[in-house]
Design a protein that fits this description.
Blueprint lengths: L4 E12 L1 H7 L2 H19 L4 E6 L2 E7 L5 H26 L6 E16 L2 E5 L1 H10 L9 E5 H6 L12 E3 L3 E5 L5
Parallel strand pairs: 4-6
Antiparallel strand pairs: 1-3, 1-4, 2-3, 4-5, 6-8, 7-8
Length: about 180
Amino acid sequence: MKTNIQEGVILIPDFSGFTEFVFNTKLYTGEYIVRELLSTLIDVNGRYFEISEIEGDAILFYRYDKHPSYRNISGILQKMRNAFNKKIKELSMSLSINIDLSLKFIVHYGTFSQYQIGDFRKLYGKTIVEAHQFLKNGLAEQPSYALYSNSFLENSRKQEVDSNKDALRQEEVGEIHYFESIS
C-alpha cells in the first residue's frame, strides 16, 4: 500500500460568531455572505496553500514544507484578515445589514498523510486532529487572532522576525497573536 506521509503546515481560517450569524440571517443572504467571504480568503491565499476541505465557515489549508517561513505565513494571514474585513464592510453596506463575524486562524505543523476517495483528497493524521482541537481552545481573549502552535514555531524560521511583544504565550499550546495589536 502506497502512503503519502509528509511534513507540512496546516492553516485553518475560521469565522468567529458563525453559529449566531446562521441563526440570525436569512438563508439565501447568509449563504451569499459566507460564499463571498470564503472566496475572498481563497483568492488572497494566492495558491500558497492547497485546499483540503471547506466545511461551513472554515477552510482546511495545507502546505508540504519542511522549513516553513513564519514571515510568509504571517504575511498571508494579515492579508487574509484585511481582505476579510474589507469584504465584511462592502457586504454590510451593499446589503444594509450588520455582519458580526471575525476571523481566527490556527497555524500548526506536523506529519500527515493524504488519501483519495473518488475526486476528494483527504488529509489524515494526528496533526490534523490537533489543529481542529486548537479551534476550541478557550484561551483567546479576543475573537480575532492567530494561534501559532508550538510545533509550528519550533519548525518555522521564526528567527526571521523579532518575537511579537503583544503575543500571549501559552506554554502548552503556542502563541496567540491578536490582530488588534498588530500593525
